[in-house]
Amino acid sequence: xxxxxxxxxxxxxxxxxxxxxxxxxxxxxxxxxxxxxxxxxxxxxxxxxxxxxxxxxxxxxxxxxxxxxxxxxxxxxxxxxxxxxxxxxxxxxxxxxxxxxxxxxxxxxxxxxxxxxxxxxxxxxxxxxxxxxxxxxxxxxxxxxxxxxxxxxxxxxxxxxxxxxxxxxxxxxxxxxxxxxxxxxxxxxxxxxxxxxxxxxxxxxxxxxxxxxxxxxxxxxxxxxxxxxxxxxxxxxxxxxxxxxxxxxxxxxxxxxxxxxxxxxxxxxxxxxxxxxxxxxxxxxxxxxxxxxxxxxxxxxxxxxxxxxxxxxxxxxxxxxxxxxxxxxxxxxxxxxxxxxxxxxxxxxxxxxxxxxxxxxxxxxxxxxxxxxxxxxxxxxxxxxxxxxxxxxxxxxxxxxxxxxxxxxxxxxxxxxxxxxxxxxxxxxxxxxxxxxxxxxx
Length: 442
Ligand code: URA
Description:
The protein is an alpha/beta fold. Helix content is 46%, strand content 15%. It folds into three domains: 3-49, Transferase, Pyrimidine Nucleoside Phosphorylase, Chain A, domain 3, CATH 1.20.970.10; 79-154 and 171-331, Pyrimidine Nucleoside Phosphorylase, Chain A, domain 2, CATH 3.40.1030; 339-427, Pyrimidine nucleoside phosphorylase-like, C-terminal domain (Aldehyde Oxidoreductase, domain 3). The chain has a four-stranded mixed β-sheet, with helices on both faces. Helix 4 packs parallel to helix 9 (177-190) and helix 15 (359-371) packs antiparallel against helix 16. The chain binds uracil (URA).
């Protein structure tokens, strides 16, 4: 087969055969196809798209490029949750303990943040002593003993995606339906769970900017998951403004604990209960087995709300943290988490209502405080980030604090504060409330 011919075919909008797709995936993974040819291929896919059959083949060859995790040593139905990425999305830290406290074994592999989006692994690493790499047998033991473990993705899971994603990130080819689907689903299908819950974000702080695009992505991923024998559901949720109030690693851990104590922001509490309820239903736990979708999700949510109110989910979080070497006392004393040396408040410039709070701008400002990385090799400042004091729909008076920027480098933090101020749009008319959960795809 000839690489230039495959690139040219896709460039001209011709449907590729399974063989041609396999050739590109395997050739790039083993190094026989260089970056510049794969970059041209990805750009051709970006503009011409792929049909469903091509996307299924791409996902399958990427999944088969590495190992499949064997979670059969864990009893019960293992349910994985994956978010397509957003700003302030710390739901894994809340939903994992909630679902686990309801009897769902949570054995999760997560990623690091890149660009303006955060990653669960970085957030967890802000907990002193916490380690996110473990031998497979220790990972399985922890899930059996404590009901939950979260580790970083290993290089053996879908290595094709690892290489292709890094190339997409620097060639402007991330935001494509087939490429996102194959990237997410190749990893999820290889990660050994029995069921998958996908949180597809839409809005300015997400890869999918509109609800229509997000729904298309959700439906395609659900179809691929189900046709691969894993019960898969998706939820389309709002990412026009950040989720919750905290953006940045240690700040997000504090907010997640606040939610588990029942005193977190309303939006993230609501989404977490919904996601946990869906995980409970997918796992057939808490008496949901055999119920239809609506009933099962409602019963699952009820169980999750009980685990939150009783403090069981918070206890589960502490046990999970100590199982992975972290100090569980952080749950009672946030001072034990990394603390920034600088705090800068951003005041409102006018009276009115917050009409818009651009999630991407906040994500970028947070990244520029040091909380995120621009290149994969960059280190992150675990204490840095932003806490929002006002969100969409809130009334403000000139001089009220809109948000606080945290960092350790004065120049960087001041510049980021200027960027964060630009994220807020103030108007005289109260806006319509935003819908957080837009659709459920079962
Ligand atoms: N998350 C992934 O893992 N891959 C993508 O392509 C986008 C979001």
